[in-house]
């Protein structure tokens, strides 16, 4: 092997730098989550730019860790430091997404990642060796969502969805022409962001958000609070155990829902969706699909492992796998619809399936 200046560099110029950078991933996650938990971004939004000493006092911390945290946040693009005044302020992205009073606050999702997913991922080895979730104990309940609302888990998950779903909904709503549709059933619709956005963009559309009763309670309250309950309603049910879904819809959507289950379970869910559609109805699946050749892309591949630590049997399936499931459920044609390359990690395309061969909307 030809040696270069760096003794660890091989003849192709490979160094360990990229791998060492990979190893830093957990540190980045923790800096972001900890700064949010300390309400650093709220502090700087309230008080404007602060010196390190002022931030130390306001946060009630020691000087040493505060300095380190401020430096790390600058290095990650979360804070800007004015070299003249030596004061720190929120970067534009922190100001938009990390201030708790903001409309685009991601705190709910960051909390879910830190409190639930992070500890589960710590035991990824067990999840892989034993093919089971590590975020929750499958011996204690049949599914992740079979929890007593009093545990707060439903609210934690709902808050997380509410904080990230609007960006996914925005992408989905613009990726396809939804204007011909009148009656949407958003299955596993969670906080209802997709239904809300589609109804805003398509004034003649009405939507039913179908989800577990405890989730629907939170969503119904939100719809009422925002004055949206005239065109959007919730329908509490369990898509695993209900014999059928509410019928009479020309559009059914499944956004980041089917990756929670294996193909056999999805076959059953898709058959129920098929029955819920009018003859010329259309089903839209939006997720982060794994490539058909099983090589990525990275957000979908990592989300798929997240389904290992978080579900029994779930996985981010490929478009080809869904095409087979849709065919088995009786759908006629399936179209692959792209989304912009800079779409948020939760969605990298749509699958649009027509119920029947007759000329319809797809
Ligand atoms: C990952 S979230 C996606 C939520 C929403 N589609 C979005 O994109 O924001 C999955 C949703 O499926 C719902 N869900 C899970 N199991 C369910 C079941 N058995 N019946 C109905 N909904 C269920 C969850 O409550 C949650 O709202």
TrEMBL record:
InterPro entries per record: COMT-like (IPR016461), COMT_C (IPR001077), COMT_dimerisation (IPR012967), SAM-dependent_MTases_sf (IPR029063), WH-like_DNA-bd_sf (IPR036388), WH_DNA-bd_sf (IPR036390)
Annotated active site: 259 (proton acceptor)
Alphabetical list of CDD domains matching this protein: AdoMet_MTases
SUPFAM superfamilies per record: S-adenosyl-L-methionine-dependent methyltransferases, Winged helix' DNA-binding domain
Keyword line: Methyltransferase, S-adenosyl-L-methionine, Transferase
O-methyltransferase C-terminal domain: residues covered: 121-332
Name of this chain's protein: Methyltransferase
Organism per entry: Streptomyces cellostaticus
The O-methyltransferase dimerisation domain, residue ranges: 20-100
Molecular function, one GO term: O-methyltransferase activity
Higher taxonomy: Bacteria, Bacillati, Actinomycetota, Actinomycetes, Kitasatosporales
One GO-annotated biological process of the protein: methylation
